[in-house]
Design goal:
122 residues, 4 helices, 33% helix, 21% strand
Length: 122
Amino acid sequence: QVSEDMRLRHRYLDLRRPRMQYNIRTRSALAMKTRETLARELGFTEIETPTLFKSTPEGAREFLVPTRQGKFYALPQSPQQFKQLLMASGFERYFQLARCYRDEGGRADRQPEFTQIDLEMA
């Protein structure tokens, strides 16, 4: 059994393993099927929300990204912050496969980065 540290150090070799290739291909097929079902069959519009936005006091701690001007942006905890804007703009059905980031302080049961399917219907 190879340690996880060793696998991550030699990631290009680890990704050659059949199990890793199966996982990546399965994730890709799931994303494509999700898009096909929601957009073509159910009439949703796929949208993409910004990756950097103004920090907010709600929710989990955010990862902050500094700018050269001395300001900070936050990586999104979830796309929830854009829902009201989209709904008010007339998008009655939308979805996105959203990358999310949460600073959970290294909790064993949480990942700092993940993808979620976000969808809304008016």
